[in-house]
User: Fold these one by one.
Assistant:
Number 1:
Amino acid sequence: MNNKFEVEFEKEFYMDYYDRQQFRLIDVIPKPICLNCPHCQVYSVMNVDSKVERFEKDIENGISFQDKNLLFDFICSCLQCNKTVFVQAQAHGNAVDPDYQVTDEPFYPGYQATDEPLKDEPLQEVSSGKILSIYPYRENITVASEVPDEYASDFREAVLVMPLSSTASVMLSRRILQNIIKKEFNIDKYQLEEAVKEFIKIPGIPSEITDTIDCIRKIGNFAAHPKTDNSGKVLAVEPDEAKWLIELLERLFDFKFIAPKRNKERENKLKAKLTPPNQPQAPSKLQAPSKLQAPNKPQAPNKPPTK
């Protein structure tokens, strides 16, 4: 299940210099944190033992939203295994507009107020946040024993780094794909795009796998060679995209390494079950001797010589 972090905004209203009703944010209150415990792997609510707020609070002016970063450090304990977990999280400050005008009074002399109705509630009571990092990192990432170590090692690293950097995780996934195509399918191309085209031409590969391969290539190139939108802003790799690539690699592992080996083991087991056991050989008959040998007669004692 996905990690979950939410906050409640505590605010107050006041009248400004121009007798306009405004509000200020005076506190950000975290709600329960839900995540997979890195120790016992159980999805549960974390018990918050202590927290540190890494943003300034001004009693008179409220909390500033200039940088939009409302960072928290939590020391939690899992309700299942009672072990300690460190969590760094961020509240979405952009849910608050500090310049929002609550009433339709003019902002300044000469300002013409509109007849459009204004919102009664400029601030959401609850806002979703984002968990940035969890410590200890999850180290017991399960990779099937059929997957070669060189790919399994990069795969574990891609999963471990994903909460910290989606871009780094995607680039590792791209490297895994490139190495598998080169070493397992003997396609050695300088450009990954050309290698994927050759891979797709291989007969007998399901379309689900070829589509999977192409998605890994596209998102991987997006991470390795950043693109911009029409405004010139660099488009970031989303966490869901990094997670999706991990799932796609698991399908590729199953197709290339896991399923063939396990199917072969099942086939061998079935053959052994259906093969009749070896019939015991009949004991060989004793061959009768060609001639019966007479038992040895005892020799007569020597007679004394006659006179």
Number 2:
Amino acid sequence: MAKTQLNVRVDETTAEAARQRALQRGMSVNRYIEELVKQDAGEVGRTFVEAASDFMKQYESVFAEEFGEFGAGDGSGKSAGKDKDTGTGRAGKR
């Protein structure tokens, strides 16, 4: 993968902390900072998944009422369900 050079200005305390942490990990400061950015970028993905999971937990009963209970029955993860107004199965409804 091609590399791009970035120039970053930080105070001396931060620079020294980066140098020490990189040394402790046996890597260059460049590699250390690259790893920190990758970890931070990955955190965004984890945060999204956690938020989506919380949303689904919060609205699980609403989804179950609208679409039926998932994971029960034939193992397909789908439920035919019945239309709450007509009592007919969803398959015939289009």
Number 3:
Amino acid sequence: MTDQRTDTSQTVVVTTMASDSHTWNLVFLQLLIEELGFSVVNLGPCVPDDLLVARCAGIAPAFIAVSSVNGHGYQDGLRVIKKLRADHRLTATPVLIGGKLGVKGTDDARAHKLRAAGFDEVFDEGTDPAAALRAFAASLPVTAPHLPGRPLARAWNAR
């Protein structure tokens, strides 16, 4: 039997933030997410906040994966999640952030603050990205048949 949460053609948005110019992390994430059965829109590096919000609102993705390599993920992530959650079309969209979130290594307090700000999941340096994405995708709600591409209503950050 297949798992409807991952055996779909739903779209996921993969992105960095405005200050992050790295691209290989996005290609890697795209390939991992496609292996889970999702279609991927890769917005590329240095994505301005307003463009990210507009593209995500227009796509209505199954989830948004924000990647950081430059060590500013925490700082930029707090700003980005505030803007994503301010758009009524994205308040319930699952959003994860991962990568190098700070310049001084991992920090549980930082991850807690990112979750409190609105991220559904935070994957800091050292996390196995394949296992983390697999678990995250498996935790997504099943899509309602009458709402193609849209997850059932869910409160973000409900864990």
